[in-house]
Known about the structure:
The chain is elongated. The chain has 2 domains: 8-35 and 54-219, Leucine-rich repeat, LRR (right-handed beta-alpha superhelix); 223-405, Leucine-rich repeat, LRR (right-handed beta-alpha superhelix) (Alpha-Beta Horseshoe). Helices cover 10% and strands 21% of the residues. The chain is of the alpha/beta class and 438 residues long. The chain is built from 5 helices and 25 strands.
Amino acid sequence: MNYYLKPTLILALWATTFVILSLPTPSLQQQSSSFEQSSSNRTSSSSSFDQNGSSFEQWSSNRSSSSSFNQTTTFQKSSPGGVRLQNAFTALQAWKKTFTSDPFGFTSNWVGNNVCSYQGVFCAPAPDNGNVITVAGIDLNHATISGSLPDRLDLLPDLALLHLSSNKFSGNIPSFLSRCKLLFELDLSNNLFRGPFPSVFLNLPSLKFLDIRYNQFEGVIPPQLFNLKLDALFLNNNQFSSPLPSTIGNSPVSVLVVANNNLKGCFPSEISKMGRTLDEVILMNIGLKGCLPTSIGGLNQATVFDVSSNDLTGTLPESMGRMQSLEQLNVANNKFYGEIPNSICDLPKLENFTYANNYITKEPIQCLMIMDKNDENNCLDFWLSQKSSTECKAFLSHPPSCKCVGSPPPRPPPLPRPSPPPTKYNAPKVPGIPTKKD
């Protein structure tokens, strides 16, 4: 089943006088059955969260005609702008030397000193001097280039946008990004980057859009990440393995996608604090446990809420009826049980409600009016495609508890076996010295 996430507009208000057009965050196409597709399939239009190749490419092509991004000035070393463009030339040529494959010849015109004419490189007036031209953006999306990110890219401190989605860049993220204090959008999705979450991302004061999905990042998601003033955050399809930190409630993001990681842990009740900003949240398939808190109804701006394919249980809170903006609701493949609250199916904008493969026992008649609904494999009497009565009875007689802990406590050491009764073959027991254990 497909559903489309509502586009979110991000206005690129860049520092001072950088002239950058309005930047829409991509439309996100989710196909819940396609999360297991291979990397090669992810680049097609049917891939999950298919941002790559949507509005970013359109914006990129549109802005090439804008005077602010279509400078063809050749640099002079004697002028301030010339120094910046000379540095950009040095950086881009050093970067190109790391490319081991450029199958579509995307960077074939990266020759000569006119860096503003390079494909995928965009120039604009410098933020501190409108009469000086500098490299403001790089967009190599879908170029399928193999290579790495060299330290020489530190010669591009005026970067506001860096889009490298759907390539084969690998290795760690170098620290040079910390010099890019104006970096507004960073898209490294669908590459081969690996290692722990790059701490350099936490030191980018202008960052609003961070997309690192479909890579091989692992380990802990740092709590500080959710203190950044981001608008959109995509962490899905990596190898992160720590519970979501309690600081998640501090984040002002409107779009949060953390799907397909091995986070485990309890459902973060603190997410309810994001009600003023959160528009789309996808926590699919990350091993969440426990129950949805009553406070979840505070997400009254959310249009998309997806917690499918976890280990959640309990009844769906009546308070979800306060999520008046909700259009897409997916709680499938969990252990929810009981009755669907009337308040959920009465939501005025709800178009898609998926609660398949749970243990729901009753749904109100209002649910039948929802445009796109999936209630298969539950415990609904007299409905087709439901669980067997035996399975339902076994589960509902002992439903799981809402009690949840982040990780199980360590097992206590086993108790020693009792000493055997004394015999003539036992050594004499000496006071103060314990008997030898079996």
